[in-house]
Write a structure and sequence with these properties.
About 35% of the residues lie in helices and about 10% in strands. By secondary structure, it is an alpha/beta fold. This is CoA transferase.
């Protein structure tokens, strides 16, 4: 167990990951999202970035030209600006690793090994370290050296072949689910490995990849193929095994989605005031799936006779799963999300923009609670915690081995 993990006793309502220190050597989205989840659960996360800053800091958005993507994905964290291509910089990272419980990286496979910062390099001095590597295709296999991004993973893992319109026009998922999902799998792996490490059974190397994440979600499609022998294709908004389960346009041109099971079929027909009990095409869930196109045309004509919100109100009262197709602005202003603080806007804590919270609510999860750090905001404080004196810190700043947001001397350190 690291020095940072030692506590004198569990305080009331202690955060789930209080006392856990995470070294975040990541960029882009998948790795940072993994460590954001951990920070929202209460871990101390140290963002290790180049002296000239993470590239995401330079993606400026909006009239204020703020690095909003960086702000959203690096909340709660501390910033250490260090050049790991220098021996002194690598020495500092190794020293921090010895005082950490977790290290997360998403460099190209083998890149940190060339800097002497791989799991194999560190585990001798850090036997309890949980080391999570996030990559496009994983740490081994014939594709290990290929560069993988979200779109490539969606295609490679089969998702792109089944996402899109029924006419065959493909579409990627609108959210970068390969990146986000891999970050989640990384966090799950870290939490499981931490449990083992805290039982005194040693650390672990977690290997998660974007391609594996997408493939791992293919449950329905693999079942469909195994059952029919036919490669699954795009179904638009339809479900692969049941109907009606898709989107319909209503009388006011607004769109809703419904998912009708056998249990809710009678109630659904009652709301729409249609009697299909004598139609063999729609008798039973599988029959409705087989004849889903004919059923969809019939239902679409009925939904056109009233506004969306009227239909949603009636369907919900009858216990039929349904909902609106929200735009992003509508989602941000939704009362349900407001009640659950999914998109907090707090000028003092986060700035003028919205934050996107982790969807986990419990007294042990503080969620988003502090804005992203300035570049090198905590460099001097972290070096001081390692026992490095003022004179050496000045030299490291002067030689650009490290960067300090406040000034080039420890007298004005931030942290």
């Amino acid at each position: 167990m690291s020095e940072a993990s030692v506590t004198t006793g569990p305080p009331a309502r202690q955060h789930f990951l209080s006392g856990v220190r995470v070294l975040d050597i990541t960029g882009a989205l998948a790795g940072p999202y993994c460590t954001t989840i951990l920070s929202d659960l209460g871990a101390e996360v140290i963002k290790v970035e180049p002296v000239d800053g993470d590239s995401l800091r330079r993606r400026l958005v909006g009239p204020e030209q703020r690095p909003l993507p960086f702000d959203l994905i690096h909340r709660n964290k501390r910033s250490l600006a260090v050049d790991i291509k220098t021996e002194r910089g690598r020495h500092l990272v190794r020293a921090l690793a010895r005082r950490s419980d977790v290290l997360v990286e998403n460099f190209r496979v083998g890149a940190l090994a060339r800097q002497g910062l791989s799991y194999e390099d560190l585990k001798g001095d850090c036997p309890d370290l949980v080391y999570c590597s996030i990559s496009g295709f994983g740490q081994f296999g014939p594709m290990r050296d290929a560069k993988g991004i979200d779109l490539v993973a969606q295609a490679y893992g089969g998702l792109l072949s089944v996402t899109g319109s029924t006419s065959g026009e493909l579409a990627k998922a609108g959210y970068p689910i390969g990146d986000l999902g891999t970050g989640m799998w990384g966090a799950i792996g870290v939490l499981a490995a931490l449990h083992r490490a805290r039982a005194g059974l040693g650390g672990a190397h977690i290997d998660v990849s974007l391609a594996d994440t997408i493939a791992g979600w293919s449950l329905w499609e693999v079942a469909d193929f195994a059952g029919t022998g036919e490669p699954p294709g795009p179904l638009g908004t339809a479900h692969r095994l049941t109907a009606p389960y898709e989107a319909f346009t209503c009388g006011d041109d607004e769109v809703l989605v419904i998912g009708v099971t056998e249990r809710s079929w009678r109630a659904f027909c009652g709301v729409l005031d249609i009697d299909l009990s004598g139609d063999e095409r729609f008798r039973g869930e599988y029959a409705r799936f087989v004849h889903r196109e004919q059923l969809a045309r019939l239902l679409q004509a009925r939904f056109r006779t009233a506004p969306r919100d009227i239909w949603i109100e009636r369907l919900r009262e009858a216990g039929v799963p349904c909902g609106p197709v929200n735009t992003v602005p509508q989602m941000l202003d939704d009362s349900q999300y407001a009640a659950r603080e999914m998109f907090p806007s707090d000028v003092e804590r986060f700035g003028h923009h919205r934050m996107v919270n982790t969807p986990l609510i419990a007294d042990g999860a503080p969620r988003a609670h502090r804005k992203a750090p300035e570049l090198g905001q905590d460099t001097v404080a972290l070096l001081a915690e390692l026992g490095i004196g003022d004179h050496e810190i000045r030299a490291l700043v002067r030689d650009r081995v490290v960067g300090d947001a406040a000034a080039s001397t420890p007298d004005t350190k931030a942290g």
